[in-house]
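Sequence in, structure out.
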Amino acid sequence: MPKFEIGVFNQTVIDLLKQGKFHRELDDSWAEVRYVTLDAPNAIEAKRKAQTRYPVTKGFVITAVDEVPAD
C-alpha cells in the first residue's frame, strides 16, 4: 500500500500562543507543521484518514498530502 506524508499543525495552539496562553492538551510544537506518514490506497483516502486522526473541530489544519516514493 502506498505511503503518504501528511503535513499538519494546530491553529488553536497558534492562537493561544499569540495570547500568551497554552493549550491544555497539546504542546507548543503543534504551532509548527509536523509531518506524519500514513498508509492509504490513494491521496484522497490518506487525507480522510488524517482528518479523522487530526480533526478540524479540534483546530488541526492539513497542509499537505504527498505520496512517498517507493524505495
